[in-house]
Automatic annotation (TrEMBL):
<dbReference type="GO" id="GO:0019888">
    <property type="term" value="F:protein phosphatase regulator activity"/>
</dbReference>
<dbReference type="InterPro" id="IPR007587">
    <property type="entry name" value="SAPS"/>
</dbReference>
<dbReference type="GO" id="GO:0019903">
    <property type="term" value="F:protein phosphatase binding"/>
</dbReference>
<dbReference type="Pfam" id="PF04499">
    <property type="entry name" value="SAPS"/>
</dbReference>
<dbReference type="GO" id="GO:0005829">
    <property type="term" value="C:cytosol"/>
</dbReference>
<dbReference type="GO" id="GO:0005634">
    <property type="term" value="C:nucleus"/>
</dbReference>
<protein>
    <submittedName>
        <fullName>Serine/threonine-protein phosphatase 6 regulatory subunit 3</fullName>
    </submittedName>
</protein>
<comment type="similarity">
    <text>Belongs to the SAPS family.</text>
</comment>
Length: 371
């Protein structure tokens, strides 16, 4: 962004501030107000720190503007208010982060019915994320007191900016202990279980973002583990997501009898089924199976001997390939398909089983000794 340099702008804003009838809207009508705020104009900051101004700033970003306003300027004040609240002005962050009544007003946005206004949700998420990064202990303590916070996040997870807020809560906090407290808190609130629960065909408006959230939690947790190599404590969210019962539920939900192509596609795409290492999607799609049954996934963990086994029965063509891709991406560990090699071991499938095993070996790039 290029700022307009006007030697008279500061003095004009100062002149406006001397008026007794000056309002926040009047100040936001000035095109240089954001520049002056970032330039630490003392009079302007003093004005914005007034209780009534801070309350109006929060109101602008969480409340729907009047319907009769021209669409071109409908969200003008919402946008400028968000820019002011997220500017590099520590005094505003301090005042907002320490005023519980203002925080409650901001938080009330989550109490709205779904779906949320996506533009207002972006303003809300950006402001709260800034507060989390700059006032982590105060904001996290405030959120912990709200028993419905995680429930509301799950309720609105279909709104992308609310999903982003959840992920920022995991990444914006840099001090080790506060970050650890957040992870433990979210784990105690069963955030993983709640996300997995809505990765389900019946949740058409939320399953895509829920599956993406799970994937991002895996990625972020592993990245953090690489950065903090001396850490002896496992990431609680990652540990929960890798539990056998959680993976079983995730797979069961994805391949539920009420199959939804969107739910399956979005979930598997998030967990890397389209990755080149799992083969070409078009090539896989050209293979036609009548039935694939009794697929055993053997997940070999580390050398400590902690081995996790997951068994899941699937009756959908290509499902074995998709599940293998999903499990590899979730666990980060080696996964193999174990199917009967001898027709006598599975008389119900007979010769067809051997043919399917051969095709699966070829598609997965598996060696003969894996089966």
């Amino acid at each position: 962004m290029f700022w307009k340099f006007d030697l008279h702008s500061s003095s004009y804003i100062d002149t406006l501030l001397e008026r007794e009838d000056v309002t926040l809207k009047l100040m936001e009508d000035e095109e240089d107000v954001l520049q002056e705020c970032k330039a630490q104009n003392c009079k302007l900051i003093e004005f914005l720190l007034k209780a009534e101004c801070l309350e109006d700033l929060v109101s602008f970003i969480i409340e729907e503007p009047p319907q009769d306003i021209d669409e071109k300027i409908k969200y003008k004040y919402s946008n400028i208010s968000c820019e002011l609240l997220t500017s590099e002005v520590s005094q505003m962050n301090d005042r907002l982060g320490e005023d519980e009544s203002l925080l409650m007003k901001l938080y009330s946005f989550l109490l709205n019915d779904s779906p949320l206004n996506p533009l207002l949700a972006s303003f809300f998420s950006e402001v709260l994320s800034i507060l989390i990064s700059r006032k982590p202990e105060q904001i996290v303590d405030f959120l912990k007191k709200k028993c419905d916070f995680v429930e509301l996040i799950i309720k609105h997870i279909g709104t992308s900016d609310i999903m982003d807020l959840l992920l920022r809560l995991l990444t914006c906090i840099e001090p080790p202990q506060p970050r650890k407290d957040v992870l433990n808190w979210l784990n105690e609130e069963k955030i993983i279980q709640r996300l997995v629960e809505i990765v389900h065909p019946s949740q058409e408006d939320r399953h895509s973002n829920a599956s993406q959230s799970c994937f991002e939690i895996v990625r972020l947790s592993r990245d953090q583990m690489l950065q903090v190599q001396n850490s002896t404590e496992p990431d609680p969210l990652l540990a929960t997501l890798e539990k056998q019962e959680i993976i079983e539920q995730l797979l069961s939900n994805i391949f539920h009898k009420e199959k939804n192509e969107s739910a399956i596609d979005s979930s598997l795409q998030q967990f890397g089924f389209n990755d080149e290492k799992f083969g070409d999607k078009d090539d896989i799609g050209s293979v036609s199976f009548d039935r694939v049954s009794d697929i055993n996934f053997i997940l070999n963990t580390n050398e400590s001997g902690n081995i996790t086994c997951l068994k899941h029965v699937v009756r959908k063509e290509y499902t074995s390939l998709m599940m293998a891709a999903l499990m590899r991406r979730i666990s980060g560990k080696k996964s193999t398909l174990h199917l009967p090699q001898n027709p006598k071991e599975d008389p119900a499938q007979g010769v067809q089983t051997v043919k399917k095993v051969q095709i699966l070996k070829k598609k997965m790039g598996a060696k003969q000794d894996l089966f």
